[in-house]
Amino acid sequence: MDIAMIGLGRMGxxxxxxxxxxxxxxxxxxxxEAARTSAAARGFQVSATAAEALAALPxxxxxxxxxxxxxxxxxxLAALSPHLxxxxxVIDGGNSYYKDSMRRAxxxxxxxxxxxxxxxxxxVWGLQEGYSLMIGGDAAAVGQVEAIFRTLAPAEDRGxxxxxxxxxxxxxxxVHNGIEYGMMQAYAExxxxxxRKTGFDLDLGKVAQAWQHGSVVRSWxxxxxxxxxxxxxxxxxIAPFVSDSGEGRWTVAExxxxxxxxxxxxxxxxxxxxxxxxxxxxDRMLSALRNQFGGHAMVxx
Length: 301
Description:
The structure is a single chain. The chain has helices at about 10-20, 35-40, 50-55, 70-80, 100-110, 125-130, 140-145, 145-150, 170-195, 205-210, 220-230, 245-255, 265-275, 280-295; strands at about 1-5, 25-30, 45, 60-65, 90, 115-120, 130-135, 160-165. By secondary structure, the chain is of the alpha/beta class. The termini are far apart.
């Protein structure tokens, strides 16, 4: 199948290479010369513009977007729109907000172009391991491009699913990332407790390796923890600053809208925000209040 992959960042380039290896013709599109040069060295065709790529593909075309969520997606679609034809399929494989995906699907439907939202998990390991794909949109359009999902997934018959109508794919990926926040936070807190128990002189790498086999907490995240501890046991040189992609915030907001209690996901998000406070005003206020009502000592800077 012929595909235009728009966005040749690390994940987009890896997906393009996996598709290329799977026998699909891929034209990678990126405005950056360095990204195009790197992609070309990996064996697939590249182009500086989407218009040029689409002109080289037979109709109907498949366009896969791997660009940052938000305005960039709308800008990309606006640039694509004049070059799309009836029957084309556009797939957004990024982390778009699901309500934006529903809106975009309606807009493209007016042009007889199908828009699929594909929540994609797998990160930098997807090239070797395959990607977990959660797909929302019209069933006929999904069937039209099913070969692409089968190639990108860990196996043809698993790791991917058409989960519902437009928006459902990115909704499921949003919740997936919220769960991921909670799991990562639990591992981080557990290892922090063990690290603080200096009397046992625990080798956290060995503990993590023991948990990899037979334990109810074994997971891919645990495997990655083992690798991180092998490379840097004390995590030297790593700043205690944790970013977020926005999907955890969307998950918490959705939980509130649906009256669903989600304390673990919510607190894990708040911990990420807290990690960015170098000089916390709230903590200084707490210290001042303890001094005011109880005369407790304050630590001065």
